[in-house]
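Give me structure tokens for this 104-residue protein.
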Amino acid sequence: MAKPLVMEIPHELGLAEAKRRLQDGTEKGKAFLEKSGLKVETLAWTGDRLDFGVGAMGQKVDGQIDVHPDMVRLEVRLPLLLSFFAEKLQRIVGDEGTKLLTKK
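Here you go.
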């Protein structure tokens, strides 16, 4: 297993609103991933932490999202084969996460 990809996305929403937006966003993300042929194996909230796991073609990606009052911390564990895409994944997740957590 490669080194985990860790990201912190700051926000000004407060804990409750950030978590609500992430809950809504994860449901949309789950539907998108399943349409793309990926299997969402785990998607479970425990307090302010979301544990997730996604698998396809023998590869599994898992991690967690921790929601804090002023930032969201994402940790993703990628198998070695997929770690080559970590930079692109970090850019996409950072962009989408920032959009999701920007005040409207």
